[in-house]
Design goal:
Distance between the termini of chain B: 34 Å
Distance between the termini of chain A: 28 Å
Radius of gyration of chain A: 30 Å
Number of helices of chain A: 15
Oligomer: heterodimer
Radius of gyration of chain B: 24 Å
CATH topology of the largest domain in chain B: Rossmann fold
Largest interface: A-B, 48 and 69 residues
Number of strands of chain B: 14
Number of helices of chain B: 11
CATH class of the largest domain in chain B: Alpha Beta
Largest sheet of chain A: 3 strands, antiparallel
Number of domains of chain B: 2
Order of helices and strands of chain B: EEEHEEHEHHHEHEHEEHEHEEHEH
Chain lengths: ~400, ~325
């Protein structure tokens, strides 16, 4: 027993730290705001986050705007549905995830790596509260930045959209109803018959400047191409009425394909796609946070997140591994692909109906929630039990 | 209160730090071995030991940075880990070298730490910076700080909680002589305010100047404890003698029946007198040398310092091991 009997025993104050509930797992607002400040001041990570989610799409669209304004016949409009869908599914989705994951890994490991974790634990504050403070702080950075980048993409794609729709090489007014398209086809019968794709037999014979899409090509006496029918059915020459009737029939047949094309993304699509890429960024941040907290360091966690997103997920989404399908379905990227707005191209590449491993929406949602909760629990557990 | 019973946990009681049978193992290695420690409130307490003795591990266990494998402990009368949040509310500590977020300023780092404490801690940032002399550099990034400045910032971080107990692990590291003096004065001031300071240091001279009491730890176990005056009371006294022929003087003294041990370095002889020796023995040494025809130029008796005592203790332990 070590007793120092003759040392002065003065009358110090008494501990009184219980009033601020510092053993609660709920973080206080000052903890969140200071954590936000700590992350926001990281120039490297913030530059990457802003550069990828705002800078790349903005520069790409501005260059297209510039080129289109200089040479509108050579360079198409900067915006439009196609540009929007490919920027969202090809850039914002993948790179948004990666930079959000990088920020999550940073938030999960830097206190430990930079020696602040020990100072924070000594305050007596609940370790769970220290962990949970990082989630709103990090999301307060990730979500707005992704939203800003996405808003810029939406704005340019809407306001710099083409004025006419290019369907099978023909300039067609956008957003027509089926009767309206038929009326338009009646008025542009020659274009429809020559340019629109059709699967069935063609009942007229009309000269086309470019090779027609559909039936076999024969040379007309005038030297131009004609959309030809099998010889027994082919009339000698089509009357205007016959041509219009055929154009209406082809337009009616093509309407379902035409209806999937837009000049600009619809409001509904923009909202859905925005929520979808925000969810992807949130997943990236939460999983990165949990993984880095679990591993105790950032670099390996970031590498693992990148490998997951750009290597493992496309493989698991498209490969058919015997007896492994349910494990493949548990990959969060596959689940995200299943809830991707249908009007966007598949972010993982390939054809949605053919290449993507089947998974129900319910299972996809369960997988996403499980990833969010699972990694949060793992990260918090490790933080609560780790030696500081 | 009995030796094996912790305080009742209401924050009262005379002890700032109290441990009973505290154990911490890392595999086969016992870093903290059945430590019984009572540190009174309001004193400066030194915790000494050679490298690897388990000093920092004990501090980490006390602060809840790592779990104990056995025993019980209390800080400021609150049991740990049961009432850890309340216990640590009025504890400030530096463990190992103080490290902070390098991309933030000193003030911003303190804001993060204050946010984890009670709301009043935010109001203590500026006074704490003033107190450690860091106000002028508070808005510089920590990555530009010297080791000594980070050490000061670490002390400022300790002060955010208005601590009644400060646990400082090697606080003099990286400080220049002036900084060490300022730190020493600051510790004494803090103790004068009624706070308790537990100081772990390998700078025994600093501990001797700063602390009221010490505990010596080796291989995870406390081997000596008490006030410094108590500990030094049982130490031997050293007599340094400068004379005309040190080698012959050493032989002469060794041949006598005097209770002394003699060593020479060629320029002088060091005569170790037994603990509690009568001062007449010094005159007797002088008489033997003079009668032996040796001219004595200087006789300098010195009380053993904490450092020499520490070396004696640890070397004895090494011999018995």
């Amino acid at each position: 027993m070590t007793t120092i009997a003759d040392v002065q025993t003065s009358t110090p104050g008494r501990a009184s730290g219980g009033s601020d509930r510092r053993d609660s797992w709920i973080p206080t607002m000052p903890m969140i705001t200071t954590r936000f400040m700590e992350l926001r001041k990281r120039r490297g990570v913030m530059s990457a986050l802003i550069g990828v989610t705002i800078g790349i799409p903005t520069v790409f669209l501005l260059v297209r705007l510039l080129l289109h304004s200089i040479a509108p016949h050579t360079y198409g409009p900067a915006g439009g549905y196609d540009i929007f869908s490919h920027l969202v599914a090809g850039v914002l989705y993948v790179f948004g995830f990666i930079v959000a994951a990088t920020l999550g890994c940073t938030a999960g490991a830097v206190d430990l790596n930079e020696g602040m974790f020990r100072h924070l634990v000594i305050t007596g504050r609940s370790r769970l509260a220290l962990y949970f403070a990082r989630i709103p702080a990090g999301l307060a950075i990730v979500v707005p930045i992704v939203a800003i980048g996405y808003t810029i993409v939406c704005a340019i794609c809407v306001f710099a959209a083409p004025t006419t729709l290019n369907y099978a090489g023909a300039n067609v007014p956008a957003g027509l109803s089926r009767p309206a398209l038929e009326n338009w086809a009646r008025a542009n019968a020659h274009t429809v018959v020559c340019d629109f794709p059709t699967n069935g037999p063609i009942f007229v014979d009309t000269p086309c400047v470019t090779p027609p899409v559909g039936g076999p090509i024969l040379s007309s006496p005038g030297g131009s191409n004609v959309k030809a029918l099998p010889a027994p059915q082919r009339p000698a020459s089509a009357t205007p009425a016959q041509l219009k009737a055929e154009a209406v029939r082809i337009a009616d047949q093509a309407y379902s394909d035409y209806a999937r094309l837009f000049l600009r993304p619809s409001t509904s699509l923009m909202i859905k796609a925005g929520l979808w890429i925000e969810l992807e960024a949130v997943i990236g941040f939460i999983v990165g946070l949990g993984l880095a907290s679990l591993l105790g360091q950032r670099t390996i966690a970031v590498v693992m997140m990148i490998v997951l997103e750009i290597i493992l997920t496309p493989i698991f989404a498209r490969a058919r591994i015997p007896h492994f399908a349910n494990v493949q379905r548990a990959v969060v990227g596959l689940a995200m692909a299943h809830i991707e707005p249908g009007a966007l191209p598949l972010a993982l590449g390939g054809d949605r109906g053919v290449d993507l491993l089947h998974e129900s929406t319910t299972v996809a949602i369960i997988v996403i929630v499980a990833w969010l909760l699972g990694w949060t629990i793992l990260g918090a557990w490790r933080m609560a039990t780790r030696d500081a | 209160m009995t030796a094996s019973t912790l305080s009742d946990g209401n924050g009262d009681g005379p002890w700032a730090v109290e441990t009973h049978g505290l154990m911490k193992r890392f595999g086969e290695n016992v870093a903290v071995n059945d430590v019984e420690l009572l540190v009174p409130r309001g004193c400066a307490f030194g915790y000494l030991g050679p490298n690897g003795a388990g000093k920092t591990t004990l501090i980490r266990v006390l602060l809840g940075l790592t779990r104990a494998d056995g025993g019980s402990m209390a800080l400021l009368g609150h049991q740990v880990p049961k009432d850890r949040a309340v216990a640590l509310a009025r504890v400030g500590a530096i463990v190992d070298e103080p490290r902070f977020h390098g991309h933030l300023t000193g003030r911003q780092n303190l804001q993060i730490l204050a946010a984890a404490r009670e709301p009043a801690a935010r109001d203590r940032i500026d006074p704490a910076l003033d107190r450690v002399g860091m106000s002028g550099r508070a808005n510089d990034r920590v990555s530009k700080y010297s080791m000594g400045m980070r050490q000061r910032l670490g002390v400022a971080a300790c002060l955010l909680g208005d601590p009644q107990l400060l646990i400082l692990d090697e606080p003099m590291n990286g400080l220049d002589p002036a900084g060490m003096r300022e730190m020493r004065e600051m510790i004494l001031t803090l103790v004068g305010e009624g706070r308790t300071v537990v100081l772990s240091s390998h700078l025994l001279d600093e501990v001797e100047r700063t602390c009221d009491a010490v505990a010596i730890v080796d291989q995870g176990r406390i081997i000596r404890h008490g006030t410094i005056s108590e500990l030094l009371a049982g130490t031997s006294e050293l007599l340094r003698v400068e004379c005309s022929d040190p080698a012959r003087a050493a032989r002469l003294l060794a041949a006598t029946a005097l209770d002394v041990a003699v060593e020479t370095d060629g320029h002088a002889i060091d005569v170790t007198l037994g603990a509690g020796t009568d001062r007449t023995l010094i005159a007797e040494v002088n008489r033997v040398l003079v009668e032996g025809g040796i001219a004595v130029y200087r006789l300098e008796p010195t009380q053993a310092s904490l450092e020499s005592w520490f070396l004696q203790v640890t070397s004895r332990l090494g011999e018995t091991a």
